[in-house]
Amino acid sequence: MLTFTIRRLILAVPTLLFISLVIFLLLELAPGDPMAQVPLTVPPEVKEKMRLALGLGEPVHIRFWKWLVQFFWIEPQVLIDNIFGTTFSAGDLRVISWQTRSPVMDIVVQRLPQTLWVVGTAYIVAIVIALPIGIYSAYRQYSWFDQMGTFVSMVGFSVPPFFSGVLVIVIFSVQLGWFPSIYDTTLVVDSWDTFVKQLQQMVMPVMVLALQITAQLSRFMRASMLDNLNQDYVRTARAKGLSEYVVVMVHVLRNSMIPVVTVIALGIPSIFGGAIITEQVFKVNGIGQLLIGAIQANDLPMVQTLTFIFAVLIVLFNLIADVLYGILDPRIRYD
């Protein structure tokens, strides 16, 4: 397993380099001008100097190489400096946002906690709810509980977050007045009262995100459980006198979790993309809203860095899913 993990990590390096090149070239071909946000009163020669200051006057391959050095070499040094108080990155030029003229990673670090509060909580809530629903729906196939779970899953799949988000705002914020409709990103949780306020403003965005994730995971869990409930080893386990709980929750569940682990692991990076719409609806000042603002302002360094971070998360969690396969199923060997 260790050899497989090291080999996959080594193979991930050229994969991520190729992904970064594709992202960079696509953004280079995208229409738009970073100087479009500059007021019209600014003279053309000043705009040209600003363009050169942003590095736009250099060839494409030079700018791509500088971005690679900044992202893979300078930014890790900055992280080490912040943790241990060293000065490895002193004076080095970092990846700078064209919109804010500040380091991109500093802005990402500022926005990340807001996204993790909402997305992380929604994913945990969805997993806790979806897995028991999928297990019981498969065990009680075609029962009223299974029919209800199927209906709720269809609703979760069908209703887009920009509609469900507005709907819960109208019901729980406008009509009932239970929760705030706008997420207060300036709230500092330093007491019990502020913690309660944080939970209150998280309820609706978490509800919207968790609905989609629960619908997906519960269906996968149900289908995987049904495939294993009719296998020969299940009949053998029952014939040996094992209790129904042990048969279902130990033998069947462990084998059924293999495809579900893939959905859970690969869904973690993709939910950050799905949270873009939810963050826009509830005004959560997180990664999703940061990406939308960078696209609208044609802030290519910010867009490139965020999309590449999403790619890194996909590669990383894909590796985590493969490692978990070997843990769940002893028959799977990578060495």
TrEMBL record:
In the bilayer, the protein is annotated as: Multi-pass membrane protein
Q: Pfam families, from UniProt?
A: BPD_transp_1 (PF00528), BPD_transp_1_N (PF19300)
Grouped into one coarse class, the protein's main location is membrane
* Single GO BP term: transmembrane transport
Q: What is the protein's given name? A: Glutathione transport system permease protein GsiC
Subcellular location(s) of the protein: Cell membrane
SUPFAM superfamilies the UniProt entry points to: MetI-like
InterPro entries for this protein: BPD_transp_1_N, MetI-like, MetI-like_sf
Could you tell me which species this protein originates from?
Phaeobacter italicus
Please state every residue range assigned to the domain named ABC transmembrane type-1.
112-321
Q: Which residues cross the membrane?
A: 115-139, 151-179, 199-217, 257-277, 308-328
Gene, per the UniProt record: gsiC_3
Keywords, ordered alphabetically:
Cell membrane, Membrane, Transmembrane, Transmembrane helix, Transport
Q: Name one GO cellular component term.
A: plasma membrane
